[in-house]
Structure formats: C-alpha cells, structure tokens
Design brief:
Layout (H helix, E strand, L loop, with lengths): L1 H28 L6 H18 L4 H29 L4 H23 L15 E3 L2 E3 L1 H23 L1 H11 L1 H6 L4 H26 L6 H16 L4 H21 L5 H15 L15
Antiparallel strand pairs: 1-2
Length: 291
Amino acid sequence: MEQLLVNTAVAASIYCLVAVGFGLVYSGFRFFHFAHGALYVAGAYACYAARIGAGLPLWCSALLGIGVSAILGAACDLLVYRHLRKRRAGATALFVASMGLYAVIQNAIAMIFGDTNRTIRTWSVVEGHRIGDARISTAELCIVGVAVVLIATTAAVLRYTKAGIALRALSADADLSRCAGVDLDRSAVLVLVVASGLAGCAGVLIALDTDITPQMGFWGLLMGVVATIVGGIGRPAGALLGAVLIAAAQQISIWYLPSQWKDAVAFGVLFLALVLRPHGLMGQPIRKATV
C-alpha cells in the first residue's frame, strides 16, 4: 500500500505539471494547445544536450531545458498564434496550427537526436530511500518536491499578483478584460512562457527517472489533458486533484490488469467524470445569462 502511494505521488507530479500549463492556455484562449506535448519533449532533450553533449552540471542543464521550452512557447505565440488571432481565427484554426507546431518540433528533435532512447542518468542505480515499507529513489523525491513547489508557486502567482489577476480575468471573459485594459498579446506571451516552462520542467523531471524519446510528448499531453478535464480547467488545485485520481487509478489497475491497460483506465476515469460532473471536480458550471 505504501509503495502504491509513492508511485501515485511520482506519476501525479508529472501529470499535474503538464495539466496546469495546458489548463492555463486553454482557459485563457479557449483552444486545444496540442504543441504543449512537444514543448514537454523539448525540455527533456535540451537538458540531455546540455548534460551529455556539453557536459554542464545537472542543475544548469535542467534550468536550460526549462528555459528552452519557455522560449519555444513564446515563439509559438509570436510566430503563429498572434497572427491567427489578428485574423480572428477560431479555435479550430488555432488547434490545427498547434498540431502543425507539434509535428514540426517533434520531427526536428528526432532529426537532431534520432529516434532511439536517450538517457541523462550517468549515476549508478542504488536501492533508494525507505519510507515505511516503500522505497523511493532520489530522482523520484526530486520529482515530487519540485512539482509541489512549482504548483504552489503558480497558484500563488495567479491569486495574488497583478499579472495573475489579469490572466484570471482573461479566462473569465476575454472581451471584458480587454475593455478593462488587459493587453491580450502580452498576456498570451506570458501564459505561453509559464505554461511551456511547466511542461519543460515536467520533461526534465521525467528524464531524471526514465529514458526519453521524441514520441513521449503525445502520452504526456494526453495524461495532462485528462487530469485537467477531470479536475476542472483553469484551476491548479483541480489539476492536482485530477492528476492524483488518474495516477492512483492507473497504479491500482496495475495490480489487477496488465500494465498496457493503465492508459485505458485513465480514459475510463475521464468518461466517468464527464458523465457525473462535466465541468470537472473543482470547476464551475457555465450558466447562461437571461435577458
């Protein structure tokens, strides 16, 4: 049981970082930012290039990986999304553009690094730390600790800072927030930088624990999206709750089902959530105004 809790905490940490970033983009601009998965991969590979290719310290490589993802996120808005917004493109056009960005970034990574598995783990494998009857590695402790700090920081920024209040106003009503003086273009860049940095951090953290491949972004995006929808879009606490539920369901299923069923279990939880509470566990239902 204790090992189940440890495994759930590690998996939920990765899911939540991806989910919070995806939810920020969706709640602010109402489109499916598919390229978010590629930015998750970009962070992992930038960290790999800095650590293995350039021989930089691990902490420096990790920060570089996060920075590369954040810069790529800003570039996605400046080079693609902003021009589509100026032409009043709808959510479908933005979604198709994000799919194109995903394909470009993923294939560029595959061209540079190849399709084979890569790893940044140069340290020897040890037994890990004991927590009761469970064991957790140093990398897994790092994953949980960093995720908790970043999620708490993101929630505090959204609640207490001027930029965070502007982003929450934008997600509530984009037209009204523009009338109130919120700069949409600047807010979009800020949202993409923060969201992409969180995704890049998730990629770096997963690289500490497992091998990385250019194709891993699709899986990471799907789990993050499922956690976002289950918990409630636009709410970091909801993303955390959704990530924990998804991770727990997957870890429990491994005890009774073959491991390849764990993704199906995640989508089963999503189906139940959509049926029982379509707006998410911590989301608010949208009410139509009466005139």
